[in-house]
Design brief:
The structure holds two protein chains of two kinds. Chain A is an all-alpha fold. Helix content of chain A is 85%, strand content 0%. Chain B is α/β, with parallel strands linked by helices. Chain B is 35% helix and 26% strand. Chain B contains nine helices and ten strands. In chain B, the strands form two sheets. Chain B has a six-stranded mixed sheet with strand order 6-7-8-3-9-10, sandwiched between helices. In chain B, strands 2-1-4-5 form a four-stranded antiparallel sheet, covered by helices on one side. In chain B, strand 4 and strand 5 form a beta hairpin. Chain B is globular. Chain B starts with a helix and ends with a helix. Classes of the chains: A mainly alpha, B alpha/beta. Chains A and B meet through helix 2 and helix 5 of A and helix 3 and helix 4 of B.
């Protein structure tokens, strides 16, 4: 059965997969633009994490530089988790998810649409929060900005690819808010660790060569989860 | 397979279990192309589960559902979505989108051609053209159900699956739905508690009880009172 789906994805449906994913993404972003439900929650959460950590670790610049990567990734990971959970919960509650499942589309398109939406929202939060992190933690991010953005992008794609898949699993359970972190965090920890390590190396003035092992790990994880998620999504959402 | 055998919906030995609970047990059912079948039954009889399996939302434990000869239970084929329209308890409408945006979204998912003209014509017919720019969250239950009907048939499906479609509709809405169901040949499967309406609109009627298809007849076979007696007998068995 998996073989059949791979053939489907290799054929003419490949283009349709992205067209339909784009439709779902656009619909989600329009809804989010009107409600700002997910962005507000994610932003407030990240801000609270930043403020609490800032008071908890009232240390000098050198010490802050060693703990800042962890703070940044904790804030973004948990905010991302909140956002991913809300990508499916309202659809499930209102029954619109069934409307998507009934449509003549590869169900991988639903996953991709939701994934791009999650990446967009986490990305917006990261862009909004980075200057605040720099300000509160007194880290000069400008010299590292381009490298930092690439690392954040890669880490976000990897994290969101897993979070989106497990959010679809968790939404069918009674304790979905609790279930998502339980399912997600152990699996996503290699991505978060890679993100933290690469960010630490960046703040210490390291180059890409020094973080190549982490970069490979992050890339491999992301590719494996992306492909597996598109292929498995059909079976995950079926009752 | 002959053309007659291949067309319409064929259900063979369909069983669905949830753990130790048997929602459907060995269901056999034929719905010919352009046939209108109503299934009535008490709560928990398995009507909605049956509809969900035919729609491709629920995977059966055993058995077959053939749509125009194609087995839908082996592997999901996206193309089946073009053939089926579903109007169920949930309207499948996004509250934060307007009526028009909802139909546009679903129309594009179904690759509907001349979509804008199609939406305007549908909204005109369901009496919602004046509310096309209204957010769905501002509409009453009956209005949402009218828009949901437009959504269900935006792609002109030859098969319509209806699960309690009259809920929330006023008399005008019910008449309008009735008009839609009879204005062009379609295969229709209606699931309802409303026996009088089921008898009024359909060619055949079936009764489900405890996951089994326990009675089936054409709607002219018995008088309403006789059907009612049979229905009550099986409803009490729940």
């Amino acid at each position: 059965m998996h073989g059949v789906r791979v053939v489907h994805l290799q054929g003419a449906t490949f283009m349709s997969l992205f067209t339909k994913a784009w439709l779902i993404y656009r619909k989600d972003m329009l809804v989010e633009y009107r409600t700002r439900e997910r962005l507000t929650t994610m932003f407030i959460f990240s801000l609270v994490v930043l403020v609490i950590f800032n008071f908890a670790f009232n240390t000098g610049v050198t010490a802050v530089q060693s703990i800042a990567p962890g703070m940044i990734w904790v804030a973004f990971a948990f905010a991302g988790m909140l956002g991913a959970n809300r990508a499916f919960a309202p659809e499930k509650d209102l029954g619109t998810f069934e409307g998507l499942l009934l449509a003549p589309i590869d169900r991988g398109a639903i996953y991709l649409g939701k994934l791009i939406g999650n990446i967009t929202l986490i990305g917006i939060i990261e862009l909004a929060m980075l200057p605040l992190f720099a300000l509160f933690l007194n880290i000069p991010i400008l010299p590292y900005l381009s490298k930092l953005l690439v690392i954040l992008f890669l880490g976000t794609v990897g994290f969101a690819s897993i979070a989106t898949l497990f959010a679809a699993v968790a939404v069918n359970t009674r304790m979905r808010d609790v279930m998502l972190p339980i399912l997600l965090l152990p699996i996503a920890s290699p991505i978060l660790i890679a993100g933290v390590e690469m960010t630490t190396t960046t703040f210490q003035g390291g180059d890409w060569e020094e973080m190549s092992n982490w970069l490979r790990l992050l890339s491999a994880f992301t590719v494996v989860f992306l492909v597996a998620s598109v292929l498995l999504f059909d079976y995950i959402v079926e009752e | 397979m002959s053309e007659e055998a291949a067309s319409g919906i064929r259900i063979r030995r369909l069983t669905k279990t949830y753990g130790r609970i048997r929602a459907l047990h060995q269901i056999n059912l034929d719905i010919q192309t352009n046939d209108f079948l109503t299934i009535v039954g008490a709560n928990g009889a398995g009507k909605s589960t049956l509809l969900g399996i035919i729609a491709g939302l629920i995977r059966p434990s055993r058995g077959q559902v053939l749509l125009d000869g194609q087995d839908m239970t082996q592997d999901r084929d996206e193309m089946v979505g073009y053939k089926i329209g579903v109007l169920a308890g949930h309207t499948y409408l996004y509250e934060e989108l307007t009526v028009y945006e909802n139909l546009q979204f679903y129309g594009r998912l179904y690759d509907v051609r001349s979509l804008n003209d199609k939406i305007e014509s549908l909204l005109e017919r369901v009496g919602m053209i004046s509310r096309s720019k209204s957010m769905v969250k501002t509409l009453s239950r009956g209005m949402r159900q009218r828009v949901a009907l437009a959504r269900a048939i935006v792609h002109d499906p030859p098969v319509l699956l209806l699960d309690e479609p009259y809920v929330g509709l006023d008399q005008g809405g019910m008449d309008m739905l009735q008009m839609f169901l009879t204005d062009q040949p379609r295969t229709v499967l209606l699931v309802t508690h409303d026996l009088p309406r089921g008898l009024e609109v359909s060619d055949r009627i079936a009764i489900m009880s405890r996951g089994r298809m326990v009675y089936e007849a054409t709607s002219t076979d018995l008088s309403f009172d006789a059907f009612d007696q049979v229905y009550r007998k099986f409803a009490v068995m729940m």
